[in-house]
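Q: Fold this one first, please.
A: Sequence and structure below.
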Amino acid sequence: MKTYTHILFDLDHTLWDFEKNSAETLSTLYEQFELAAHGKFDKDSFYRKYKFVNHRLWDLYNKGKITQEELRNQRFIRTLTGLGLEPHEVPEGLSKAYTDLCPTKTAVFPFTYDLLQYLQPKYGLHIVTNGFKDTQYIKLNSSRLHGYFKEIVTSECCGYKKPDKRIFEHTLDRIQVRAQDCLMVGDNLECDIEGARAAGIDQVFFNPENYSHRSKPTHEIQCLSQLRQIL
């Protein structure tokens, strides 16, 4: 079995349970901003529509087609107009309220803490994320994850987004290690798996939903506890 010295982790959808934390946040905001009063959609519809819109916008952001500001400004406008509201009916402050609240949520995937406690004495652990710097640090601190990681590399700070191999090369320079000594763990086949492969780094595809695909990552797991079998 190959020996690694450093493990790189994506954050959202890999360790920090974005969908669960986002759902809790949207439920709170649905009540806080009295969205039911419009009579056009229920809480579940609001969540499903937001999830769809946000995923599409993040895909555009990762490909460099929209800015951070456009992503944040547009996701609730597109969600609520898609549910039947007029643009002027979209509550002011909704986007900021989401950005302020969601990163403070603390749900992580099963076995996250057990895994990190097992790995930390044996490997250098690092985060490589396209998430925005201001929110990623809040997430890491709120969920008590920050202390496990030596380097936190965000696309904002280094100037390159996954899957651009330069964000991985930047990370290797930061931690002063060779690509063959690292392993990348992430949930996104394009950003995490293909990006790491392009930089010569072995990959673990975290696929908790076990959906089918044609990619060929170095390893694939459905639960974080399975990573111990690889390491």
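Q: Good. Now the second chain.
A: Here it is, same layout.
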Amino acid sequence: MEEEKDQLSRRNFLAIATGAIGGLIGIVMAIPAVAYVVGPALQRRTAENWVRLGPTSKVELGIPTLFKTIIESQTGWIVAEEEISVYVLTEDGREYIALSNICTHLGCRVRWITDQGQYFCPCHNAAFDKTGEVVAGPPPSPLDRYETKVEEDQLYILLGG
């Protein structure tokens, strides 16, 4: 009879020890996983994400000028670089319009055709005027605009603001 009690208590001890070790391992593995998922939401984001394009002297009056820049984004531990292209237009040298070069129809890249005075999208022959408004084709909306600012003769656009 005593042997049965000893075996039962050993079994209970082993069951409790196995459960405790498994629970400890689970907690140790869960903490980094939760930090990875919840961490970005808890980080303070800057209210403004201004990206420098280049000097304002590069922009000719009345002619859209293409600027390219590389931006970095971080998700968890992964850092990705992305090149963005923006057309900048000014009629007076003081007010600037910055337009995405991505068509709002299927995301193809548009290019400025000086002879026609339009942006042209080769995917479905879409066309946009100088200010990004749809002139022809299937795009549902004008080209996306970025807010701009000028500091010390450098042109900046606001991303994700």
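Q: Anything worth noting on the second one?
A: Residues 2-42 form the longest helix (41 residues).
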